[in-house]
Write a structure and sequence with these properties.
The protein has 22 helices and 17 strands. With 636 residues, the protein is α/β, with parallel strands linked by helices. The chain binds fructose -6-phosphate (F6R).
Amino acid sequence: MKNIEFHRFEKIPATIVNSSLDGCQQIASEICTLIKERNLTQSPTVLGLATGSTPTGIYRELIRIHKEEGLSFSNVITFNLDEYYNITSSHPESYNLFMQEQLFDHLDIPTKNINIPDGTVERTATFAYCQDYENRILDAGGIDIQVLGIGRTGHIGFNEPGSSAQSRTRLVHLDSLTKKDAARDFLGEENVPRYALTMGVGTILDSERIYLLAWGRSKASILALAVEGEPSEALPASLLQSHPNIEILADQAAASELTRLKRPWLVRHVDWTSSLIRSAVSWLSANSAKPILKLLDDDYTENGLADLLTQHGPAYDLNIRIFNEIQHTLTGWPGGKTKSSDERRPERAEPHPKRSLILAPEPFDDVIGMGGTIHRLVDQGHEVIVAYLTSGNLAVPDADASKAAELVVDLAELSDDCETEEVRLAKSVLKELGEKADFATDSPNVRSIKGLIRRGEAKIACEICGLSGSKVRFLSLPFYERGKYRQFKLSGDDTDLLKGLFEEIQPHQLYFTGALSEPSTVQANCYQSMRRALLDLSDSPWIQNCYMWQYREASQEWDIQEIDMAVPLSPTELTNKIQGIYQHQTQRRQAPTSDRASNDIWRQAEECDRRLAETYDNLGLAEYEAIEGFKRYSLI
Ligand code: F6R
């Protein structure tokens, strides 16, 4: 039986799954059970499908079941939620093409049973077209199972904030955050279509059964609002609260902002672990706008923490204990302070100097997450090696590659040496880019010049962080070179390259990121291959002596109870870090727009580090300019 208290704040049933893979397999199995049942009577199964990263695991599993277990999809009828407006079905980023490649090409589903909005309908005909789409759903008998993802605006389908619960299939304008999220796929925000055709919220609510899936930390806050907040048009996913037959499946990272995970003491009896106590006390301090040391017994009891007080109080003792604990996360010595007691420090004093290996999934993850700490480690005499796991070449605009190729050709002309291999390569790159159709895939030559540009940027950024070129490695993991955004597949080669690196360096400290990322991202794939490599090597003696530290991802912030090591930055160190990030010029998208945040990755990093310092300050600890936070990681 469901513990009702436990779900007290939740207005949509939500299940937390072990991994996105488990969640996708579960949904695929529900879908297949229904198809099997309907196939017995030759009646159709009507599926409502989504695109994007979230459901791809379901599609892989459906294909597997079709191929390995022989399940026929010939009676299945599908309706996709949406399509960008004004792009053809052969456009590489069209949802039509996505669905063909990810699912339909691999099943025995008849083409006539597949319905995806057509992004090329004449503007004046869209109203009639959308009505017809609705009619087709009705004619098919309505949607049996609707699969949904959730956007960071809280959109479902492309129903952006402001969509009503009654809305039907229509042409909509995309929110600027949605366009920002799609910018990578479209090689720049300016290329993202402004409009889309989407089923309405009302259309979705008419489905018999709905599954909304959410993976990764970036979905956590919007998911919690949709599940626990008041239903509102300002957050379309919250309108699903009225559906009688809906379930949310979320992984731990996406569910992390739900009250039952974030503040479990409000919904059930808890065992007060030290991390939970830290979390409760820091929450209480923020909630009552008082520094920790000023919290009173009454503050605890009036805010649902009487039990904590009974077990670990009085407030005076608790306050001091947690204040000290948080205080001890702060250190200016991320590599440990040699010849000092390390009893209360996050890192061991010895060995000194340490070999610190920093893994950056894409060039610049390192400097965004821990540019200040890299500088500290170098300054304090540690041997710091930064390994860039992927080349990052997919994120380089063509214009930058052309500029670089032109420079090679111009230089050769200056020196009258125009027949070299490099010049031939540069010329072929210029020719290819000159003739390149919109969104065409780059040849290996173009990708390699783009990768070299990012190498150059990364090396300068590292120098600014105090690291010389000889300490910088570029692994170019094959999964990235073979793949494209949202469609990466890891292989044994990726793990082998990482194993080689680990065995060669045998670090005392390993810094990495990506554990909380949405599973299709470069960061999540890098984390997975790192984890596989470490597990394969788990018997190696060096691993037993290696402290592993997670640094934050570009778009992520730590909660105070997650932080095991907090490295403060002075104003000068922060400026230096921002300079480092600034060197990644190809990642500064376009000229400034009115939406400042869209192109200011360095400013976002700065604000994030400042916010963490502010959090420490508000808790009553020292007031620093900025702080980089780290979470200790254990392989098991
Ligand atoms: C896609 C769709 C969107 C996505 C949402 C999440 O057809 O309708 O609502 O589900 O934007 O996208 P991902 O899964 O890429 O995070």
